[in-house]
Q: What sequence folds into this?
């Protein structure tokens, strides 16, 4: 198996299909969270920002994650972090996080923020293992039992 990790356009049809899987998974995990504020970014704006990573295994998208700008240039939000179920446990999330952190540094960020959820214990362990700590809600997000907010200083 050949694994590659590269910046890609999240609007690429195969990547967008993987992102759609993520959305369905989150809707299944958190059906009561349908009233959360909409994200201020789109796939178009993520593509324009130029910090969306895709891990491919034998040419097929296996995992992804991106950075979205926030108010102020020193903080970025990690968004659309996802590893397809067949590829979980192989370290792809750690690789994507490390690459996102490097990309954030090149963009001048001093802090990375993210939102996860309590029904994603494996994802929470990945973030904690990589130095992310819990914090209060930020930006458009709200305090809610389905939200866990984390940050890491770079």
A:
């Amino acid at each position: 198996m050949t694994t590659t990790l590269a910046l890609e356009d999240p609007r690429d049809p195969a990547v967008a299909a993987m992102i759609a899987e993520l959305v369905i998974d989150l809707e299944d995990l958190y059906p009561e969270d349908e009233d959360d504020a909409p994200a201020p970014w789109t796939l178009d704006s993520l593509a324009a920002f130029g910090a969306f990573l895709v891990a491919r295994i034998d040419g097929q998208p296996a995992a992804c994650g991106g950075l979205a700008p926030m108010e102020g240039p020193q903080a970025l939000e990690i968004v659309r972090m996802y590893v397809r179920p067949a590829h979980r446990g192989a370290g792809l999330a750690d690789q994507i996080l490390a690459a996102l952190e490097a990309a954030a540094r090149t963009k001048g960020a001093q802090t990375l923020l993210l939102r996860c959820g309590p029904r994603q214990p494996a994802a929470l362990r990945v973030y904690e293992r990589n130095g992310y700590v819990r914090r209060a809600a930020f930006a458009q997000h709200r305090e809610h039992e389905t939200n866990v907010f984390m940050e890491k200083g770079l």
